[in-house]
Amino acid sequence: MSARSASTARPSRTPWRLLSAGLAVAVAAAVAPAAATGGAGHSGDAPYRGKVISQLRHMTLEQKVGQLFVIEVAGRDADAPSDAAKAINQRMYGVDTPAQAVAKYQPGGVIYYTTRNNDDNIGDPAQVARLSNGLQRAAVSLPTRIPLQISVDQEGGALVARFGPPATQMPGNMALGAGRSATDAKRSAEVIGTELASVGVTQDYAPVADVNVNPNNPVIGIRSIGSDPGLVSDLVAAQVRGYRAGGVSAVAKHFPGHGDTATDSHFGLPEVTHTRAELEAIDLPPFRAAIAAGIDSIMTAHVVLPAIDPGVPATMSHKILTGLLRDELGFDGLIVTDALDMQGATATYPPDVAPVRAFLAGADQLLVPPQMDTAYNAVLAAVRSGEISKKRLDESVYRILLHKHRRGIFRDPFVDPAAATQIVGAPEHRADAQEITDRTTTLVKNDAGVLPLAAAPRRVLVAGWGATTTQSMATALGARGATTQVLESGTTPSQAAIGAAVAAAQTADLVVVPTYNAYAVDPKTGLQTASAQAQTRLVRALLATGKPVVVTAMRNPYDVASFPEAPTVLDTYGYTAHQIESLVRVLFGEVDPTGRLPVSIPRADGTGELFPFGHGLGY
């Protein structure tokens, strides 16, 4: 202050509104993320800044720490779950009901599951809508009146889809990659988002942005769009827009990339050996595209990336989450960990260490820690001790509250259960799913000219993987005049099952063999798994009968490398009802097989490609 200003200053009380305004500016400077005023992919936070700052000022330390956590709850009713669900909630949290768990921890979010921990959250649409409403009532009745972010893993396809029928089953990522259509990818996400929003889900942990360049990847595979970063980037961006159009926020996962791993991070800690140049060329483009498309959240991967931070899982790495994702890629939205009870996290970090390390690395939200009391108290203690600064805590809570304002969760957290029953599985959604799926089936080989099948009576043996899959195929074939026999042999056909299939083939005019990861390799031995070997023996035994054999790879498209002599091979990239219907439509020429391989197929001996990226036959 200058001498002149000091001598002329008049002693007076600062008006409250000016003091309040000054305080607001000071708090904003302290808590608002540096990019929050308009970073890449996001509109500015100006419309909500004052509200968020006011909420932060009135929150206790305990309430702020609670907002960092996304928890699971057991039961289909927020207030009156089954006795079995009560026992699970007691084991996890020491309370009976989901509503009581929300009241105890005041978490930022809840995630729905079906079979995990027997949580059993998901029944019919009206029930889920009522559960969502009950959880939101529990949240907004607390002193902070902060609604929940309610999340789920609904990626589409046959693998990670918590909502089964009547929810519309879209074809999944790799199938969309085969279809090559950004329009279809956007519409698929929009349908999923619309149905999730109707039951009170506000966020979908999708799309998967991993580039699957490892045919032996045990956890990603068809969850990925494909092996080409450009294709993955285009369709990921389209899905981000589609989820937003459907009314839910999207989460791109698993940063910085889980597409070249040979270990499932649910059961171990994978290492991605990509160089920095490979990371830039392969793994990061889809995340950059998601950010440019306005992605709300990005999920971390429990993988080690030595090129950036040797020995440290990405979830716990400040260099990766803050240095790479925040600073280099300019992402200013929410960073959420993958589940902290996965072995990729728990094998290295104890339950009281993992959440603190992830938060210090740059994560905003901590997903399902294995011991909630331990995790909550560890983070709270770290803040009280100064290990986590209050400024750092406020930055994450600011982002979480800002997200809920932007997504309209504060404005209207409740849904109409009656409307949900009309929206979930709506006829137009199912029609769109079938049309999109019809554009994804890939005809890899048709050397014998068996396809398309003529419309004529025939005896068809369906022998191979999947009780539901084989029966559904037989039903669809029967609807087209075939007399069918089904011999389901599981993932590891016994010699007796193979012998029975060979005997049954003798009286068949056509044999259809669905396979399931018949190319899978054991990373410990480098050899085919027992399951893959058995399925390969089944295919070769049926080929040896001399009967026309159609092999259909129902999961990963690499199966043909195990039996390259098979003359007729198709890929479906999944086994939803729509995918099986599309397969049979292609068999009969009712639709043209327009899908193209979204990955390259290697030769089993490692001598190069059997089929290149983009390969696919038509009629």
From TrEMBL:
<feature type="domain" description="Glycoside hydrolase family 3 N-terminal">
    <location>
        <begin position="60"/>
        <end position="401"/>
    </location>
</feature>
<protein>
    <recommendedName>
        <fullName>beta-N-acetylhexosaminidase</fullName>
        <ecNumber>3.2.1.52</ecNumber>
    </recommendedName>
</protein>
<dbReference type="InterPro" id="IPR019800">
    <property type="entry name" value="Glyco_hydro_3_AS"/>
</dbReference>
<dbReference type="GO" id="GO:0004563">
    <property type="term" value="F:beta-N-acetylhexosaminidase activity"/>
</dbReference>
<feature type="domain" description="Glycoside hydrolase family 3 C-terminal">
    <location>
        <begin position="442"/>
        <end position="619"/>
    </location>
</feature>
<feature type="signal peptide">
    <location>
        <begin position="1"/>
        <end position="34"/>
    </location>
</feature>
<dbReference type="InterPro" id="IPR036881">
    <property type="entry name" value="Glyco_hydro_3_C_sf"/>
</dbReference>
<dbReference type="GO" id="GO:0009254">
    <property type="term" value="P:peptidoglycan turnover"/>
</dbReference>
<dbReference type="Pfam" id="PF00933">
    <property type="entry name" value="Glyco_hydro_3"/>
</dbReference>
<dbReference type="InterPro" id="IPR002772">
    <property type="entry name" value="Glyco_hydro_3_C"/>
</dbReference>
<dbReference type="InterPro" id="IPR036962">
    <property type="entry name" value="Glyco_hydro_3_N_sf"/>
</dbReference>
<keyword id="KW-0378">Hydrolase</keyword>
<comment type="similarity">
    <text>Belongs to the glycosyl hydrolase 3 family.</text>
</comment>
<dbReference type="InterPro" id="IPR017853">
    <property type="entry name" value="GH"/>
</dbReference>
<dbReference type="InterPro" id="IPR001764">
    <property type="entry name" value="Glyco_hydro_3_N"/>
</dbReference>
<keyword id="KW-0326">Glycosidase</keyword>
<dbReference type="InterPro" id="IPR050226">
    <property type="entry name" value="NagZ_Beta-hexosaminidase"/>
</dbReference>
<dbReference type="GO" id="GO:0005975">
    <property type="term" value="P:carbohydrate metabolic process"/>
</dbReference>
<dbReference type="Pfam" id="PF01915">
    <property type="entry name" value="Glyco_hydro_3_C"/>
</dbReference>
<keyword id="KW-0732">Signal</keyword>
